[in-house]
Amino acid sequence: MAPxxxxxxxxxxxxxxxxxxxxxxxxxxDLPLDNKELEILDEVxxxxxxxxxxxxxxxxxxxxxxxxxxxxxxxxxxxxxAPSAVxxxxxxxxxxxxxxxxxxxxxxxxxxAARLAVLNVVSSAGNGDLQAALINGIRTLAxxxxxxxxxxxx
Amino acid sequence: xxxxxxxAIYVAAPxxxxxxxxxxxxxxxxxxxxxxxxxxxQWEFPAQWWAGDRAIAPTDQALVVAGTEGGxxxxx
Lengths: 154, 76
Description:
The complex is a heterodimer.
Chain A: H1 35-52, E1 55-60, H2 67-76, E2 85-91, E3 96-101, H3 105-108, H4 111-125, H5 130-145
Parallel strand pairs in A: 1-2
Antiparallel strand pairs in A: 2-3
Helix pairs in contact in A: 1-5, 4-5
Chain B: H1 3-26, E1 48-51, E2 70-75
């Protein structure tokens, strides 16, 4: 067989309908945030972790009947990072925002500072802008935690 | 060249080109518009959870006391 020749010629009129891929990345077309927004969110999380040395985590989804317990469960799911982790959880369906600060992170982000972040999230989410809600919330939490002295020049 | 030909070439043709360009600019794109969230609507998207992967500052284990997580909550 000559190079470039088709190995198998489909009989005419038998076209397989396209099916979505069953493995690999499936795209973000049916998700609330598009690629550009996710990239910005990623940069914000990374920047917050770089200056504070804490683990930052964001959750967007249902929080169940006991939202605080669900948020604490998610926070515990961060494993060994959990004591130094900060979780910002948004449930747009229930209109609830939960901030959980780990035991060590809570020494740097007081509950009063967390309420400031919640205020920020509420004002953005109330306008329907969930991306801004996540980003502003994380930025506020990072600002309140402060920059580590040895990282101030990073 | 008659007056009609002159007008057609030097006036009508440029106007048509400008009009076509303006039309293409103002017609909304064919890309499917993502539905914007508005407070109070149902949320049917799957849950998503993100976390950074940067190495964090070492945790002082002496400060770790179970059950002393802080935080805040709010509604909108």
